[in-house]
Amino acid sequence: MKGRWSTAAWVGLVALLLFTPITGLVLAGYSVELHGQRPLWLACMAVLGYGLFSLPWKRWLSELQRSTRSEEVDAPPRVAGSRRYGIALAVLVALALPFLLGKYGISIATLALIYILLALGLNIVVGLAGLLDLGFVAFYAVGAYGYALGQHYFHLSFWLALPLAALLAACFGMLLGFPVLRLHGDYLAIVTLGFGEIIRLILNNWVSVTGGPNGLSAPFPTFLGLEFNRRAKQGGVPLHEFLGIDYASEHRAIFLYLLLLLVVLAMVYVVVRLKRMPIGRTWEALRENEIACRSLGINHVTVKLSAFALGAMVGGLGGVFFAASQGFVNPTSFTFFESAHILAIVVLGGMGSTTGVVVAALLLTVLPELLRDFADYRVLLVGIAMVWMMILRPRGLRQRRRPLFSLPLPKGEGP
Amino acid sequence: MDIYIIGQQWVNGLVLGSTYGLIAVGYTMVYGIIGMINFAHGDIYMISAYLTAIFLALFAAMGLHSVPVVLLGVLALTLLFTALYGWSVERVAYRPLRRSTRLAPLISAIGISLILQNYVRISQGARNQGVPPLLEGSFRFPAEALDHRFIQITYLQSLIVITALLSMALLTWIIQRTALGRACRATQQDRVMATLLGVNTDRIISLVFVMGAAMAAVAGFLVTLNYGSFDFYVGFLMGIKAFTAAVLGGIGSLPGAMLGGVVLGLAESFFAGFVNSDYKDVFAFSILILFLIFRPSGFLGVPEVEKV
Amino acid sequence: MSKFSQLVRVVIVGLLVLCVGHPGMGMRLSHAAEPIKIGMAGPFSGSDASFGEQLWRGAEQAAADINKAGGLLQQGGKGGRPIQLIKADDACEPKQAAAVASRLVDMEKVVAVVGHFCSSSTMPASTIYADAGVLMMTPGSTNPAITERQLSTVFRMCGRDDQQGVVGADFVLNRLKARRIAVLHDKTTYGQGLADAMRARLRSAGHTEVLYEGLTRGEKDFNALVTKLKGVQSDAVYFGGYHSEAGPLVRQMREQGMTAPLISGDGIFSEVLVTSAGGPGFVKGVYMTFGADPRKMPAGQALVELFRKNGYEPEGYTLYSYATVQAIAAAIQATQSLEGEKLAQWLRGHAVETVMGSKSWDGKGDLQVSDYVMYQWDDKGKYREVE
Asked: What is the pLDDT of residues B179-205, one digit of tens each?
């Protein structure tokens, strides 16, 4: 116990030292103002925080885990009964959600679904194939701009743009995949980061085509050729007149949400199936040991490329939906921070676990919105939450239980 | 093309590259020892910029005006406090994750980066800050030039280049020649074995973060004096550039970081100066990608040999 | 009971409390003086947070002043309802702007919105407000496209980039008599819009710029670009962008021995420019366009004094957001209504007395009179109008 107290004293002292210059001395022009109380308060809070953090959170969490533990990944394709009910319930709730929430709720839910889609895509690349991609936002941007540009120049409808933009993104995935085949780990990371930045910069600089920083508008999808607007454009019939109901701007938000939900469910299904198919097994095998795979005659080129292409395609789909839901695309939506955010979802979700990714995406989209009441402190709290969640659950919300046994890490790998 | 313009772009690129190099050291050392990309490093640099300005203002308020005293005093204090920040970040956010997956610290680092940025924004305000010019004047070649026909390097710019080289030499000496450095290298090569042989690896890792932060502090100090302007967001872009430099030079290699920084700085300067500054960053990232394809371990990196 | 299930309970109860306490989710007992909610949307975090601070200070003060005077919708001198400002952070990011816009409309049920700031945020947000029939007036988005779409409830309290660029170009050509003009921008919606307007005016006057290039926001080293400016021997440099880049740019120009004047727009209209350039010595002689200084207008003098007394220099957009709140309040008071369409209709037909003088709007929602004038910085770090 005595050790605890002296550590707490150290924490207080270090905190005081840390906080004094930045919070206690505030720059005003070329001089400083003294705010003596702030570092003292913060140091007290740090000591308090130390006390809180040293509570046995991990043990509590593992108790929670024990009480709710369910089989994953290695369960046979036919899921256990309780799990099936759980999934059905989740889908039902998701279906009912837009009718319960207001427009704001729907827009957040739509955003959450888009992030689920993006995280599913990145999960294929990072979680399953083990290729660290820090520029996933590039494919997202390709999808979004694919739709906006296609609409602008070729008058592609949403329904045509959806597969085309996804294909385009997949092509970009291959394009990126080829040169990076030779690269490992973190060299791969920086190359993908660079690729993401290049795409964004080109979108921003090529004003004559992409509209540069002004962005492009992206129209809302139609439903069987019927528009969701109050008044239809040239000669069309708006949906609400066709159905004989009153116009409400919520309708199209609900429509997009349900459409997106459908796509997300389909993607979840595809990804879950893929994991059990030979290609999915090969991805995971390649992640675990590339050399062993290659010596067993697995063609690492096609395997890696297929992971990149598939991941990019899903990201592209997310982009199309993003553009359609925002009605507007602009390069500021596709910064590196967005890539980091998606990666955070995947890692928090547990690298390769589909359920985990879905939960993490919901968490990381809804949490910042809930924190809006804290106004100034919102992003700070998001940061603290990220660090804390990583410390509590370094392997993510759902821990992967494959491989069943693991060899000690070879040198130079793993922190 | 005017010879003076070309010469001036060499100077611009060299100065810019030296600052990249100094910050890249932090990335390269941390990566070398625990294989982690420390995304919060750019924000450590940002903290050091604020510390520099705060201590400068404090010295001025105390009535100290002798330039060498102020410079050395502020540098020492900035170094100390930035190092403390580097140490605390490692202790709080990365050490608990030592035995987990390799991506966990990466996410933790992104969280820390958010925390540091907003911590500074809330306590210091969002506005752009600056420091008054402290050391003015420049060397010009030729000395008596008419019009714009000269190449110049300001005193501060030359200080940046010299300090970067000196601190890099000092660091290399520490790593290569001292017992401490030997322990660092041992930890880098095989952490488990080093622990068995009596190296306190946790302490060594802390020390690496402290050294990285100290180099970022040197960079923050010099850059702040030279450009005189910063805000809570400067760490982000600088961090990405420096990381790029570290990879370009071969991540894990100290001289490589410096070389990568200078090459990146020169490439940016020349492209912006003679082609188009809109696409400067596109060019920088493109050479990075192309270079890595043909030489996947950077300029001075040792190619990874995978043993089975 | 284990410690753990206790913990779970505490968390659940906490969440319930949070939900009920959450505005819009729980029921709120209303009294006679129910506040009128007005959204204040802008960048309160991220790289443009300094502008958000200016906006918030102004709007906050305006709401406080109006509330002190008895609030809005008072009938026979009593029963006035106070204004409640809802802070909504968009970080100048379109995605977040759209999210907070629907939050303001849908959950907070605001009557009107002051904001947003960045043109790229205002664009997607304004469609949401227009769709919901909520009045929106931006104090700072100058991109022409915002009002060109003719959304019925969208207004602005500032000028447009095309007007500002024209003033800048005419000044450079006629007063400075510069002929080798370089046009730079920061690749943002605002900065590039301004630079494009400038360039268009130069070209229509028969001049071609010697250089048209963008720099990266957030960087501090523009030495390579400055050397290039020296290389093309430009005798005037126009910069579309914000003070955080303009400061280092002008400093590096002077350090490299360039004497050509720098001309910019309202993005550098802040005394932070002096700090970020490294002292008054560097910004001396820099020109910029801005509306006639709101701080100098007789209507705003008392207010400016009040701000200064509270230790805040009401620079940049502070008074703009103050005036925006005033305009919205005036419309509510005159129409005795909280419907966006009605308020918008009233604003199109009437002039409002604000701290920045009398303002009136045209059919598109732009100000009838834009009063851009040229300012110059002096060697003491202050600016004054160019006669």
From this structure: 999 999 898 888 889 999 999 999 999
% of chain B residues with pLDDT over 90: 45
Q: Which spans in B190-200 are helix H?
A: 191-196
Cβ within 8 Å, pair B247-A187:
yes
Of A183, A380, A415, the CB nearest to B292: A183
* Tens-binned pLDDT, residue by residue, of chain A (415 aa): 567 788 888 889 999 999 989 888 888 878 888 888 888 999 998 889 888 877 777 777 777 767 665 444 444 444 456 777 888 888 888 888 888 887 788 888 999 999 999 999 999 998 888 888 889 999 999 999 999 999 889 988 888 999 999 999 999 999 888 877 777 767 788 888 889 999 999 999 998 888 888 888 888 787 766 666 665 555 566 666 666 666 666 777 888 899 999 999 999 999 889 888 888 889 988 888 888 888 888 888 888 899 999 999 999 999 999 999 888 888 988 988 889 889 888 888 887 788 888 888 988 888 888 877 776 787 888 888 888 888 887 777 766 555 444 455 555 444 4
Strands C236-240, C181-185: pairing kind: parallel
Burial readout C193-227 (b: 16 or more C-beta within 10 A, e: otherwise): bbbbbbbebbeeeebebbbbbbbbbbbbbbbbbbb
Strand C83-89 relative to strand C36-42, pairing: parallel
Tell me, which fold does domain C162-291+373-385 have in CATH?
Answer: Rossmann fold (3.40.50)
- The fold of the C36-159+297-369 domain, in CATH, is Rossmann fold (3.40.50)
d(CA B297, CA A191): 12
Question: Is A294's Cβ below 8 Å from some Cβ in C?
Answer: no
Let me know whether A199 and A316 are in one domain.
Answer: yes
Same domain, A90 and A187: yes
Tokens 């430099």 correspond to B245
* Per-residue tokens: B123: 């306590």
Question: H or E stretch including C89?
Answer: strand C83-89
Q: Do A383 and B112 touch (CB under 8 A)?
A: yes
**Residue B240 at interface with chain A, using a CB cutoff of 8 Å:** yes
Flag whether A247 is in a domain: yes
- Among C5, C22, C189, pick the best mutation site for testing chain A contact (most A Cβ within 10 A): C189
- Asked if C98 lies within 8 A of A326 by C-beta distance, the reply is yes
How far is C121 from A31, CA to CA, in rounded Å? Answer: 34
Contact B128 C247 (CB under 8 A): yes
Of the candidates B103, B125, B132, the beta carbon closest to that of A347 is on B103
Select from C93, C219, C226, C252 the residue whose CB has the most chain B CBs within 10 Å, as the one to mutate to test that interface. Answer: C219
- Min distance C53 CA to chain B CA atoms (Å): 8
Radius of gyration of chain B (CA): 20
Query: Is any Cβ of chain A less than 8 angstroms from the Cβ of B303?
Result: no
Residues of chain C with CATH 3.40.50.2300: 36-159+297-369, 162-291+373-385
CA-based angle C370:C302:C362, to the nearest 5?
Answer: 20
Give the sign of the dihedral formed by CA A369, CA A371, CA A376, CA A382.
negative
Residue ranges per structural domain of chain B: 40-130+157-232
Contact yes or no for B44/B26 (Cβ under 8 A): yes
Tokens of A216: 């492009």
Sheet of strand C112-114: strand arrangement: C83-89, C36-42, C112-114, C135-138, C154-156
Is B272's CB within 8 Å of C224's CB? yes
Task: For residues A90 and A50, state if they share a domain.
Answer: no
Domain with residue A178: its CATH number is 1.10.3470
Whether residues A92 and A213 share a domain: the answer is: yes
Q: What whole-number distance in Å separates Cα of residue C243 and Cα of residue A101?
A: 42
In 3-state terms, what secondary structure has residue B146?
A: coil
Kindly provide the ipTM of the predicted complex, given to two decimals.
0.89
Q: Is B135 exposed, middle or buried (0-12, 13-18, 19+ CB in 10 A)?
A: middle
